[in-house]
Amino acid sequence: MLSARRALTGCFDGVLDMFQDVSSSLGWAEKMNGAMVPVSAAEHVKMTLKSGKVPEDLSGVYLRVGPNAQHWPPKKRTHAFDGDGMVHSVRIRPGGDASYHCRFMETPRRYIFEKEMGSEWFLRVGEMQGIAGLLKIMTTGKKKAKLSGLEEDEMGTANTAIGFTPDGKLWALNESSAPFRFTLDEAGVPHSVGFDHLQGTLKESISAHPKFDQRTGEILFHGRKLPTIFYAGRIAEGKLVERVDIDMPVGGFHHDMCITENYMVMIDGAMAFTPQEAIKGKQLWTFQEDKKLRFGIFHRSKKLTQEMPWSGLKQMWQLRPLAEAVRHLGFTGIADFGVLAPEVVGRAVGAWIVHTCYAYDEGDEIVLWTPLCYYNATGLLDVERKC
Ligand SMILES: [Fe+2]
């Protein structure tokens, strides 16, 4: 019965596929000389030095994770973010010996399920385009997820970021699920373990960029459940110890946050998911010109609360990159933080942070170093050059 329902759903989805052009979704694969084209798993590849010398006592491992579609070329429209997580590892031993390995993260949803299916099954970001994409979101996308029989917090691809927890665990993170745990053997080969539900305390997804405080042993994170729920939490001693819903507009590109010794900071910027634009075949996330960058602050010594204090930013924030942006636009100061002074510009100016670099307390200020995207003075968005 289940196989018949899957076949029927797959058949209807296949009809919708006929209205979607796969090749036009793969422009990203041609960029950077094809560096983002999926690769095969590899192990024990001896690395050679092109120039210089490896320090004699250098020992450890360099890790990165990224999307790497297991079905290639794809039969479905595929966004650069859609690939299955693949961890790449360079193991360096004392004396300069280095070897390279890469392996898929064997997530139950995308990797194992679709490996057994022999093709793509779950709805991809790349498919969310046009009328056919809208129909997929409303019908087959949800249906397929349900027919997979997998838990909602295990739907992620473990393809976005690596985490190293204070209690010594390695995570491959994706904001659609709980962290996916993996280990390394002595040679540096990655081995999948499974989704980490923190001893049964974590039942939701967390963002791809939780913050690890190796000093206190805490992990602080945000997460969301589309379309309406946004939350923040605290992990200690391997368990979720605090979790609270936050009043945050969901649909924004809330990808990263930051912590300092005393504060945990949420970031709300000008980039938002706009289904209407996606349906028209435009960008999935678009710059909301009039949406101002703002920060919500929790004091780490207190319990997380539903109401985030958005006020007090003028006293608390010293945004050096923002000051740079203001100077670039030809202004001499920040009139009111959180606002690139719309009354000065003559229009509202949005700004957006994708990833933070690091943050720290300096007296009663929080200093954040971060790339910043913003509208330029002519009103044209130039994210890539200003990042
Ligand atoms: Fe990221």
From TrEMBL:
InterPro entries: Carotenoid_Oase. Pfam families: RPE65. The keyword Metal-binding applies. It comes from Durusdinium trenchii. Belongs to the carotenoid oxygenase family. It comes from the Eukaryota. The keyword Iron applies. The lineage of its organism: Eukaryota, Sar, Alveolata, Dinophyceae, Suessiales. Its cofactor is Fe(2+). This is Dioxygenase. Keywords: Iron, Metal-binding, Oxidoreductase.
